[in-house]
Amino acid sequence: MNFCSSCGHPVESRIPAGDNRPRYVCTRCETIHYQNPRIVAGTVPVWEGKILLCRRAIEPRYGYWTLPAGFMENSETTEEAASRETLEEAMADVELAGLYTMIHVPHIDQVHMFYRAFLTEERFGAGEESLETELFELNRIPWDEISFPTVRRTLEHFVEDVQRNDFPLRISDIRHRIKPKE
After folding, report:
1. What is the pTM of this model?
2. 41 vs 155: CA distance, rounded Å
Protein backbone atom coordinates (compact mmCIF):
# COMPACT_ATOMS: atom_id res chain seq x y z
CA MET A 1 0.00 0.00 0.00
CA ASN A 2 1.37 3.40 -0.97
CA PHE A 3 -1.44 5.89 -0.45
CA CYS A 4 -4.27 6.45 2.00
CA SER A 5 -7.70 5.49 0.68
CA SER A 6 -9.25 8.20 2.88
CA CYS A 7 -7.24 11.28 1.84
CA GLY A 8 -4.78 10.13 -0.84
CA HIS A 9 -1.60 11.04 1.01
CA PRO A 10 1.33 8.62 1.43
CA VAL A 11 1.24 5.94 4.11
CA GLU A 12 4.05 4.54 6.19
CA SER A 13 4.40 1.19 7.92
CA ARG A 14 4.62 1.55 11.70
CA ILE A 15 3.17 0.14 14.90
CA PRO A 16 0.35 2.47 15.98
CA ALA A 17 -0.06 3.38 19.65
CA GLY A 18 -1.91 0.61 21.48
CA ASP A 19 -1.19 -1.95 18.75
CA ASN A 20 1.46 -4.66 18.47
CA ARG A 21 1.86 -5.08 14.71
CA PRO A 22 3.07 -2.89 11.88
CA ARG A 23 0.17 -1.26 10.00
CA TYR A 24 -0.06 1.19 7.15
CA VAL A 25 -0.78 4.60 8.69
CA CYS A 26 -1.51 7.76 6.74
CA THR A 27 1.18 10.41 7.22
CA ARG A 28 -1.46 13.15 7.09
CA CYS A 29 -4.82 12.04 8.49
CA GLU A 30 -3.43 9.21 10.68
CA THR A 31 -5.98 6.67 9.33
CA ILE A 32 -4.83 3.15 10.18
CA HIS A 33 -5.30 0.73 7.29
CA TYR A 34 -5.78 -2.78 8.65
CA GLN A 35 -5.03 -5.69 6.35
CA ASN A 36 -6.54 -8.97 7.43
CA PRO A 37 -6.53 -12.54 6.09
CA ARG A 38 -8.75 -13.40 3.15
CA ILE A 39 -11.22 -16.24 3.34
CA VAL A 40 -11.47 -18.83 0.58
CA ALA A 41 -14.76 -20.77 0.73
CA GLY A 42 -15.64 -23.84 -1.27
CA THR A 43 -17.28 -27.24 -1.31
CA VAL A 44 -16.56 -30.93 -1.56
CA PRO A 45 -19.49 -31.61 -3.91
CA VAL A 46 -20.63 -35.23 -4.10
CA TRP A 47 -23.03 -37.09 -6.38
CA GLU A 48 -23.63 -40.80 -5.80
CA GLY A 49 -20.28 -41.26 -4.07
CA LYS A 50 -18.27 -39.34 -6.66
CA ILE A 51 -16.53 -36.00 -6.13
CA LEU A 52 -16.99 -33.13 -8.55
CA LEU A 53 -13.69 -31.44 -9.45
CA CYS A 54 -12.94 -28.49 -11.72
CA ARG A 55 -9.91 -28.11 -13.98
CA ARG A 56 -8.66 -24.55 -13.49
CA ALA A 57 -8.85 -22.12 -16.43
CA ILE A 58 -6.99 -19.39 -14.52
CA GLU A 59 -3.68 -18.88 -12.79
CA PRO A 60 -2.35 -19.84 -10.40
CA ARG A 61 -2.19 -23.54 -11.25
CA TYR A 62 -3.87 -23.32 -14.66
CA GLY A 63 -4.91 -26.77 -15.88
CA TYR A 64 -4.81 -28.43 -12.45
CA TRP A 65 -7.82 -29.97 -10.71
CA THR A 66 -9.44 -28.28 -7.74
CA LEU A 67 -12.52 -28.25 -5.61
CA PRO A 68 -14.85 -25.37 -6.50
CA ALA A 69 -13.81 -22.49 -4.24
CA GLY A 70 -12.89 -18.84 -4.24
CA PHE A 71 -12.64 -15.68 -2.24
CA MET A 72 -15.54 -14.72 -0.04
CA GLU A 73 -17.24 -11.44 -0.99
CA ASN A 74 -18.38 -8.72 1.36
CA SER A 75 -21.97 -9.05 2.56
CA GLU A 76 -22.11 -12.84 2.26
CA THR A 77 -21.69 -15.71 4.70
CA THR A 78 -19.10 -18.43 4.22
CA GLU A 79 -21.96 -20.80 3.31
CA GLU A 80 -23.23 -18.39 0.66
CA ALA A 81 -19.69 -17.94 -0.69
CA ALA A 82 -19.14 -21.70 -0.93
CA SER A 83 -22.45 -22.25 -2.73
CA ARG A 84 -21.87 -19.28 -5.06
CA GLU A 85 -18.36 -20.43 -5.99
CA THR A 86 -19.67 -23.93 -6.73
CA LEU A 87 -22.33 -22.48 -9.02
CA GLU A 88 -19.86 -20.12 -10.72
CA GLU A 89 -17.04 -22.62 -11.24
CA ALA A 90 -18.94 -25.88 -11.71
CA MET A 91 -22.42 -24.67 -12.70
CA ALA A 92 -23.76 -26.93 -9.94
CA ASP A 93 -26.38 -26.35 -7.27
CA VAL A 94 -25.51 -27.94 -3.95
CA GLU A 95 -27.01 -28.58 -0.57
CA LEU A 96 -24.45 -27.95 2.15
CA ALA A 97 -23.90 -30.59 4.82
CA GLY A 98 -21.74 -28.61 7.24
CA LEU A 99 -18.26 -27.17 7.52
CA TYR A 100 -15.72 -29.90 6.83
CA THR A 101 -12.20 -28.42 6.76
CA MET A 102 -10.79 -25.11 7.90
CA ILE A 103 -7.15 -24.73 6.93
CA HIS A 104 -5.09 -21.73 7.97
CA VAL A 105 -2.46 -20.64 5.43
CA PRO A 106 -0.69 -17.85 7.33
CA HIS A 107 2.22 -17.35 4.94
CA ILE A 108 -0.24 -16.06 2.30
CA ASP A 109 -2.71 -14.51 4.77
CA GLN A 110 -5.60 -16.84 3.92
CA VAL A 111 -8.03 -19.21 5.60
CA HIS A 112 -9.56 -21.93 3.39
CA MET A 113 -12.96 -23.32 4.43
CA PHE A 114 -14.55 -26.28 2.65
CA TYR A 115 -18.09 -27.51 3.22
CA ARG A 116 -19.33 -31.01 2.53
CA ALA A 117 -22.02 -30.70 -0.12
CA PHE A 118 -24.35 -32.80 -2.22
CA LEU A 119 -25.35 -31.94 -5.77
CA THR A 120 -29.10 -31.35 -5.89
CA GLU A 121 -29.16 -32.99 -9.34
CA GLU A 122 -26.66 -34.50 -11.75
CA ARG A 123 -26.17 -31.22 -13.56
CA PHE A 124 -22.81 -29.43 -13.77
CA GLY A 125 -20.50 -27.81 -16.27
CA ALA A 126 -17.49 -25.58 -16.71
CA GLY A 127 -17.93 -22.01 -15.53
CA GLU A 128 -15.70 -19.15 -16.69
CA GLU A 129 -12.84 -20.12 -14.36
CA SER A 130 -12.93 -23.83 -15.29
CA LEU A 131 -11.73 -25.66 -18.38
CA GLU A 132 -13.89 -28.67 -17.54
CA THR A 133 -15.59 -30.40 -14.64
CA GLU A 134 -15.80 -34.09 -13.91
CA LEU A 135 -17.18 -36.49 -11.32
CA PHE A 136 -14.40 -38.71 -9.98
CA GLU A 137 -14.64 -42.03 -8.19
CA LEU A 138 -12.59 -41.75 -5.01
CA ASN A 139 -10.01 -44.24 -6.32
CA ARG A 140 -9.60 -42.21 -9.55
CA ILE A 141 -8.85 -38.77 -8.12
CA PRO A 142 -5.97 -37.30 -10.19
CA TRP A 143 -3.64 -36.83 -7.21
CA ASP A 144 -0.66 -35.73 -9.33
CA GLU A 145 -2.74 -32.93 -10.83
CA ILE A 146 -4.31 -31.42 -7.70
CA SER A 147 -3.95 -27.63 -7.61
CA PHE A 148 -3.27 -26.63 -4.00
CA PRO A 149 -2.15 -28.19 -0.70
CA THR A 150 -5.45 -27.21 0.97
CA VAL A 151 -7.43 -29.03 -1.73
CA ARG A 152 -5.19 -32.09 -1.46
CA ARG A 153 -5.51 -32.19 2.32
CA THR A 154 -9.30 -31.82 2.15
CA LEU A 155 -9.58 -34.61 -0.43
CA GLU A 156 -7.26 -36.88 1.59
CA HIS A 157 -9.42 -36.36 4.67
CA PHE A 158 -12.56 -37.01 2.66
CA VAL A 159 -11.31 -40.31 1.22
CA GLU A 160 -10.30 -41.43 4.72
CA ASP A 161 -13.57 -40.28 6.29
CA VAL A 162 -15.77 -41.97 3.66
CA GLN A 163 -14.20 -45.30 4.64
CA ARG A 164 -15.10 -44.67 8.29
CA ASN A 165 -18.43 -43.01 7.46
CA ASP A 166 -17.54 -40.27 9.94
CA PHE A 167 -16.95 -36.66 8.86
CA PRO A 168 -15.57 -34.59 11.76
CA LEU A 169 -14.65 -30.94 11.38
CA ARG A 170 -10.95 -30.86 10.61
CA ILE A 171 -8.94 -27.76 11.48
CA SER A 172 -5.28 -27.50 10.54
CA ASP A 173 -2.49 -25.26 9.28
CA ILE A 174 -0.32 -25.33 6.20
CA ARG A 175 2.78 -23.31 6.88
CA HIS A 176 5.36 -22.27 4.33
CA ARG A 177 8.57 -24.06 5.07
CA ILE A 178 11.60 -21.82 4.75
CA LYS A 179 14.56 -23.72 3.43
CA PRO A 180 17.73 -23.30 5.51
CA LYS A 181 20.58 -21.41 3.84
CA GLU A 182 23.30 -23.65 2.50
Report:
1. 0.90
2. 15
